[in-house]
Specification:
about 130 residues, mainly alpha, about 65% helix
Length: about 130
């Protein structure tokens, strides 16, 4: 972070390039899912998820970035599992009652929501005077 007339958050160019490439991988994964291109969709899980984890690790010292980037990581995890469940036709199989294998994606989705709720409801209000708070 650098200090000017107001606080700014700067990202090293190598990090920005990685984030941009992450978006490309994510879009390829989702296009493959939409077009039911199983091999490409499954292959694209790995760079998408790995880069997401690396981004979360690199920004771990900023609570805002940590929470948002971890939420993205669990979102990609849920999204990837959902894609695989549709590719291999077990998405609509029952797990318990009307709860299907696709509904298991709710676990990581809610985990991400809980991380963001923690940040916005608890952490940000209790640390609003610290520089890092956005």
């Amino acid at each position: 972070m650098s200090k000017t007339s107001e606080d700014t958050y700067t990202i090293p160019l190598s990090y920005r390039k990685m984030e941009n490439m992450h978006i490309v991988f994510w879009l390829f994964k989702d296009v493959a899912w939409c077009m039911i291109w199983k091999p490409l969709g499954i292959i694209m899980i790995f760079p998408t998820l790995i880069i997401s984890i690396v981004i979360a690790w690199r920004t771990r010292h900023l609570m805002s970035e940590r929470c948002h980037n971890l939420a993205i990581t669990v979102w990609i995890t849920a999204n990837s599992y959902w894609m695989i469940s549709e590719f291999f036709h077990f998405d609509s199989l029952p797990v318990w009652g009307d709860f299907t294998f696709k509904h298991l994606t709710l676990i990581p989705f809610f985990s991400g929501l809980l991380m963001l709720a923690y940040y916005y409801i608890y952490w940000q209000p209790t640390h609003r005077h610290e520089k890092e708070t956005m």
